[in-house]
Write the structure tokens for this entry.
Amino acid sequence: MKKNTKLYETVAALMASGKGILAADESDATAGKRLAMVHLPNEPENRQDFREILFTAPDVEKYLSGVIMYDSSIKNFTDDGIPFPDVLLAKGIVPGIKVDLGTVDLHGFKGEVVTEGLDGLASRLKEYYDLGARFAKWRAVITIDEDEIPTDASIAMNSILLARYAQIAQAEGIVPMVEPEVIYAGDHSLEKAELVTTRTLQIMFQTLMTYKVDLEGLILKSSMVLAGDMYPEQSTPEQVANATLRTFHMSVPHNVGGIVFLSGGQTPKRATENLNAIASLGEQPWPITFSYSRAIEEPFLQAWGGKPENIAKAQEMLLYACEMNSLASLGRYDSVADAKLK
């Protein structure tokens, strides 16, 4: 199979040491939930302001290698008429795009879902490529519920969809980011989370290899392995780090281009502490960093408050959150000294 070295160049740019990826890819409805935190109505102009303040923050390129956008934001402009992807490209940040269309119930499998979005994907990716996107993201949702869920069958179905998406993306010159998110919400133990995450990744990577996806030109976006948010004994950063890396060594081929973490409902500080604990265990076969959404955007939103006079303050907070996670990705984050992330 002919290799596409452009894919590898994009992966290398995204996985640059000390940098991470901002997941600013909320749907318009989810962006509305972010805006509700600062008492702004979910209207196009408010979503545009939210994105513009994020993307134009001075010096954010020091800590971000890429930004994942949603369809409506990759096609949007600044107040000055500059397309959002061009704003990022001018900073040396790689534009990315979320391409899945969300989940629907998997018929016959109560409590389990599959992700839609393959119809017309090649033509959509061509359009996104022309707009500047060089990587894409597709999320599968894996829920833990006692011993019955997830089933291997639902994981396999989602893995086939992820593989087909990855094939199409690579054919269009776009790096696929595959995100099989094991949901943090629940009362499951750390051990159960490790078992499910390991099984999910093993089935997915076997499927990706079966369908000849180029793993060097692919990025895994993974959950950290941690006990459910309702489990009585919450995982320490050291427990999270050890369980997560055990999972990766059991599941992730060494030629995968890189691994980035989703924050998955953790508080901003906890996501940063756990990333730092993972990085502190030393060099791994793959570069590893962060791809956070709420864990970076929440401190920014709290500083902004939806008020024009707070824009500079909000951008300073954004830069701070990105810097702390940059340090964490290198194992250099000082949780005690950090009084700003909550």
